[in-house]
Amino acid sequence: MSLRQHRATAGWTGWLNGFILCCSILLSSLSLRAQDPSNSPAWKHAEHLRHGINASEWFAQSRDYSVQRLSTYTTLDDIALMHSLGFDHMRLSIDPAIFDCRGPWQDCDRVKMLDQVVAKALAEQLAVIIDIHPNDQFKHELSSDSNAVEKFRLLWGRLAAHFAGSNPEMVFFEVLNEPEERDPYRWAGVEQRLLEEIRHQAPKHTIIVAGGRYSDIGDMVMLPQFNDGNVIVNFHYYEPHLFTHQGASWGVPFWIDVKDVPYPLTPDSAQKPVSQQSDWTAKWQLTEAGLEHWDVARINEEMRFAADWAKAHNVPLTCNEFGVYRNFSDPAARARWITDVRTALEQNHIGWTMWDYRGGFAVVNKQDGTTKPDDQVLHALGLK
Question: Which residues have CB under 8 Å from 340's CB, separation 6+?
Fold first, then answer.
């Protein structure tokens, strides 16, 4: 081969190799783009979860799931009201006991009513989160019994198949509310297994995942990178609990005796509730909460941190529980807290779902057959 032929051949070979390399880079780029979670339907579907409401104590958190109560506690008319008030989605808490039916689900009155509720919400242009919301005993069994996990997987398989024909842009599957699992590694494995079962039965629907324990921001940041691009990550926000849960009869025992906790909560504003306490644990917790300066700046920074985490992990984010127990909180302070949290969420492009529609944290008052929206809370939520 002459030197000229060698150079020509070398030139052709170099061009060919360069062309192949460019194609390889392009194909790799396309492959990565196809796998990029930001191209997932979850990002588009998350736009339906901007400002929602929790339909609590209806299909969950009750000992009475009779047809009579299910048809009257909250009604189809309430769903229409949710839409007219400006909410764009409803998180529907569902106790697994709802599915304890003798015979096929299509013959079970409770499941029929559930189907009617979902259908009504969709007709009102409300997206629906199917939120499995069991009691504490159910969750404790999940944390210690592999058989309980397997039964739950099978239940999710049936449930996902049941709703697989629904609009995947408007119906979401939430794996489990506040797992109360203290081992984040065990919960990561359990949640991945449940996610896989849901995905097998409902390939197009977006799945909502959350951290263990009570699904706060600290639990969220311990989540793994799931092997599924079509997911939304969720967290709950009730900080500081001494304000949002003052007077509550559940949770920490001394909460029930805590009253007159203000917001913002600072060293000065904490002095009055501290002086009213005889329990030294309560005194200390209130003093600490005041020193932590719970105000709009603190809340803004916490939401910014959550948004930064989601951005780093390239996942859409939602906060589908936040609120203030209304029985013992000052209405004006409650409204200020809701305003600050809602605004911080929106400024950080995080969708939200307030807790709740008509329970202890409610946005409406239902009494003697009439339903009256709480205008102060609606204003705090930026709604009509």
Answer: 295, 296, 299, 300
What's the pLDDT score for residue 9? Answer: 43
- The DSSP result for 70-129, as a single string, is HTTSS-HHHHHHHHHHT--EEEEEE-GGGG--SS-GGG-HHHHHHHHHHHHHHHTT-EEE
Q: Confidence class of residue 201 from pLDDT cuts 50, 70 and 90?
A: very high
Do 282 and 276 touch, CB atoms closer than 8 A? no
Packed helices 331-347 and 296-313: angle between N→C axes, nearest 10 degrees: 30
3-state secondary structure of 354: strand
* Nearest-angstrom CA–CA distance, 381 and 74: 21
Q: Is the pLDDT of residue 10 over 60?
A: no
What predicted TM-score, i.e. pTM, was given to this entire model?
Answer: 0.89
Per-residue confidence at 1, pLDDT binned at 50, 70, 90? very low
User: Which sequence spans correspond to the domains of the chain?
Assistant: 1-35, 42-239+299-380, 241-293
Helix H or strand E segment including 10: helix 3-35
pLDDT, residue 37, reads: 55
Q: Which two tokens stand for residue 317?
A: 């984010």
Checking phi first, is residue 125 left (phi over 0); if not, alpha (psi -120 to 50) or beta? left
The confidence score (pLDDT) of residue 257 equals 93
Task: Enter the tokens of residue 197.
Answer: 């079962």
What is the torsion angle, in degrees rounded to the nearest 10, for the CA atoms of residue 244, residue 250, residue 256 and residue 260?
Answer: 10
Please report, for residues 102, 250, 274, the alpha-carbon distance to residue 298 in angstroms, rounded to integers and kept in the order given.
51, 26, 21
Residue 36 pLDDT: 55
> How does pLDDT run across 322-369, given as a tens digit for each residue?
999 999 999 999 999 999 999 999 999 999 999 999 999 999 999 888
The predicted model gives 209-234 an average pLDDT of 96
42-239+299-380: which CATH topology? TIM Barrel (3.20.20)
